[in-house]
Write a structure and sequence with these properties.
The chain is 32% helix and 18% strand. It contains twelve helices and 14 strands.
Length: 408
């Protein structure tokens, strides 16, 4: 059983988080803090397997506390609780650089469904944390045969148990009043059946492109999800600044966080990194991150210069952005070759789109090797589907991209 410290200045939020965590037999909250200074002192004087940390705290903010612990080389495993406000998103991206393993967006609406989604995402983040390459074994846990510490436990098992255990949390969440609470817990509607990738095109018309485009012979399209921010902090800074083609990427991330992710990556990389804008031409030597809450489609003008179409159509397989949509949009492009890159992530997003794309275009697929993934879901789907041309560890991904583009 993993021992957890919960840090949040809201008594209501602490109670909700503790109820969610304690409903899962793999975790137990053994301590709480209401401010950053108290949390810092507890971490320095006690041992916790994981810390659930709110970013906005009195006395010492979450990111300042992590920076202090990081500088002092104090080990910790942190899952962040953040809002989508720009200042919180910026702090969250900084905290990821100080070793935070994952983050979950706190609910802001008085909706039982929203609170249930938060609970599911929090437990999934905690279950995924021990699989993270940055996870540190800090205290003695239950025997190796326990569900949490078993090396044979699968993501699917964790997800199924998460859903089952959340059933016991719903009644407690319904009692929460004011703040994030107030409404009775609602049942989560069943997801609508997914349509085939061929029929997912939106009725949104592509925008009129802005500026002047450049036609390139090759194009790079990357997809990642759980563990992606850490992976991107490894891959993107290793790319050469003079990369001869554009790179677009889908990272499953809530709206408001992708701009902060792009800004942080741009600061530490030779290559330019930005959040994609609707209608802009893709330029060589630039990485374009799909904004959270939008789908990315790649279109071309009359001269075959590629530009960005940010599509506001509904989520696909509960994802927005969805990598399958991005890959499928490249079907009619004029590129001689499309280099598809799939990094760490839960689920199988990207595999269906790449399979579809391969029927129409010359593609070369690079997938991340299992032992270097936080979650070996998306790369596994690509590899087991027979779609990968090259399977490489995380630190070799940038080199593989550069070699495939050629002349670098």
């Amino acid at each position: 059983m993993y021992k957890i410290l919960v840090v949040d200045d809201s008594a209501l939020m602490r109670r909700i988080i503790c109820d969610i965590i304690n409903a899962d037999s793999d975790f137990r909250v053994i301590d709480v803090s209401a401010d950053g200074e108290d949390a810092y002192n507890k971490i320095k004087n006690n041992t916790y397997d994981m810390i659930v940390l709110d970013m906005v705290l009195p006395k010492l903010t979450g990111v300042d506390m992590l920076e202090k612990l990081y500088t002092e080389k104090t080990p910790y495993n942190v899952v962040l609780i953040s809002s989508s406000l720009k200042e919180d998103a910026d702090s969250t991206m900084r905290a990821m650089e100080f070793g935070a393993l994952d983050f979950v967006v706190k609910p802001i609406r008085s909706s039982g469904e929203t609170r249930e989604i938060f609970g599911r995402q929090l437990l999934e983040a905690l279950h995924n944390a021990p699989k993270n390459r940055g996870f540190k074994e800090l205290s003695s846990k239950a025997s190796a045969s326990s569900p949490a510490s078993s090396a044979t436990r699968t993501i699917g098992d964790a997800n199924r148990s998460t859903s089952e255990k959340l059933a016991g949390v719903r009644s407690k969440l319904a009692e929460a009043k004011s703040g994030i609470g107030g409404a009775q817990t609602e049942s989560v509607p069943s997801p609508k059946p997914s349509t085939s990738v061929e029929t997912r095109a939106s009725s949104d018309r592509p925008p009129t492109p802005k500026g002047t485009g450049v036609k390139t012979k090759k194009f790079i399209a990357l997809a990642c999800s759980t563990g992606g921010p850490q992976a991107l902090h490894t891959v993107i800074p290793m790319l050469p600044g003079n990369l001869a083609v554009p790179l677009v990427l889908v990272q499953h991330m809530p709206e408001g966080f992708t701009a902060s992710l792009a800004a942080r990556l741009d600061q530490i990389s030779a290559i330019r990194v930005k959040e994609a804008e609707n209608g802009e031409f893709f330029q060589p030597g630039t990485v374009y991150i799909t904004p959270g809450g939008k789908h990315m489609k790649i279109c071309e003008d009359g001269s075959h210069a590629a530009y960005c179409h940010l599509d506001d159509s509904p989520p696909v397989n509960s994802l927005k952005p969805c990598a399958d949509v991005m890959y499928q949009s490249l079907k009619s492009s004029s590129f001689d070759e499309i280099v598809c890159v799939v990094l760490t992530g839960m689920g199988a997003d990207g595999s269906e789109g790449i399979k579809y794309l391969k029927q129409y275009k010359k593609t070369y697929v690079i997938s991340q090797e299992a032992s270097t993934c936080v979650v070996y879901g998306m790369p596994k789907a690509v590899e087991q589907g027979g779609l990968s041309n090259e399977v490489v560890p995380l630190k070799s991904v940038a080199n593989s991209i550069a070699k495939r583009i050629g002349g670098l």
